[in-house]
Design goal:
heterodimer, A: mainly alpha, B: mainly alpha, Rna Polymerase Sigma Factor, Chain: A, 74% helix, globular, disordered N terminus
Amino acid sequence: MNEKKSCACGMLSDEALSEALALSEKASPEILEHLAACPGCRGELERTNAALARVTDLAARSAPPLRKRIKLPPDRAPAPARGRDFRLSFALAAMLLIAAAGLFGRSVSPLMFPARTSVESVSSAPLFFEDREAYADNALPPDYMDMAGESSAPDEESFDDPAHTEDFISFTAPT
Amino acid sequence: MDPKSARDEGPEPLAELVVKARAGDRAAFDRIIGLSSARIFRMAYYRVRSSMDAEDITQDVFIRAWENLPRLSDPERFSPWLYRIAMNRVMDHGRKRKFLDLFRRPAAREDPDGDQEETDFPDTATPSPLTQVMAGEFRERLDAFSRGLSRMEREIFSLRFLDELSLKEIAQTLEKDESTVKTHLYRAISKFRKDREFGSFLSEAAP
């Protein structure tokens, strides 16, 4: 059957013949017209059709029969129909949730915005840059110096005063 | 039941049974099983090549079909829908088998059909030795021919000539355009016509 690719007439291509085989009477009118007129192409078509029919026949005979009795387990029930209605209601619920989040802002901000880091929150606070001098001045607690027995009000001049240094030495290393 | 008898009754009775089964009528679904199980089994068998596995797949296909039947919108599309379920189950089976192959001995892994290939028909009216030999050789030739096809060509050729689905049913089963199905079918048929070994075997096997 396969020795000839197509009829000697050369009118019908390999592809056209395959189309006729695949579609039979639904093939294009030109192909059907040619097949009606050309016994060579018609013979080739019939030979291949017969071979394909044998494939179907042998496939049916070569498969083992179904021995198991197919039945439903008694406890199985059909699942409730949840087609588009279910998906639509789910989508509507999701849209409502997003809309509510937009309206009520901060209460649901974790859903809408990424969490801010502590650095970001501090740096974006307006008072930080404006009052950084005050922050620097108050870097040490006011009663820090009391721990060393000095005045709680730090005096820059006292550090340059030799007497102060002596006093400090005498305090740390009493004679 | 003879698979062809189900088709001879026409689409109306099956569609009516599907409507009844969709409403929860188990008897109607049992009748659908009677009409379609042999075809689904054969479809699964030619893909997994083990009658035990094909039986399990067939059982599973009908359980899933029963459970999901209320979701089938068009009863006329029951057949392609059922084949679609079957194809998914066959693919699941293939994936499971590939995974299990990782733990099998290399010698057993070399032959993908391995110890599961069945060449005889146990527990049935014993066919003649000649029929058994012919069946075995047909399956071998079919495999050899299928290896020369692309995956899509193989699937469409099988659905058309082994499972006897129409082009429209194939398109619905594979969820492809009918024109795509036609193109792959032309190519598969063209390769079939060029396969001389398969052709001469089929000529000899002619009754």
